[in-house]
Amino acid sequence: MNVKVGEELPDLVKHPTTRQLVQYAGAQGDFYEIHYDQEYAHSVALPGVILHGLLKAAFLGQLVTDWLGDRGTLKTFEVSYRGVDVPAHPYRCRGRVTRVAGNEVELEVWGEDETGKRTTVGTATVGLPD
User: Fold this and answer.
1) SS3 for 60?
2) Would you give the end-to-end CA distance of the chain in angstroms?
3) pLDDT tens profile 10-59
4) Does residue 78 lie in a domain region?
């Protein structure tokens, strides 16, 4: 795999739904009302129900593993949340190569709302075969 600094990963656009949030809550066990109860979300000054942070992290993890395929191994992955995202609006996952050191590649990854604001930012390190 020939990888160069500055190379961009193919965008991954997700279209989360409130139903998906309910399913994710059940699978993960996170039943905080801000993820499925519109009235409650509004009562705590949110625009409505919001995506789970870990679901956004999973989307970014999918971005990296889709790009990597079976050509290497995901070694590290971390994200930080900088804003809220809501269902029924696209969530665009993006990334780029920031460092190549032998078989180790560092990536910058981020999720954007429909205005292009980075609401989740992170990094990943992948190992490539010899």
Assistant:
1) helix
2) 10
3) 999 999 999 999 999 999 999 999 999 999 999 999 999 999 999 999 99
4) yes
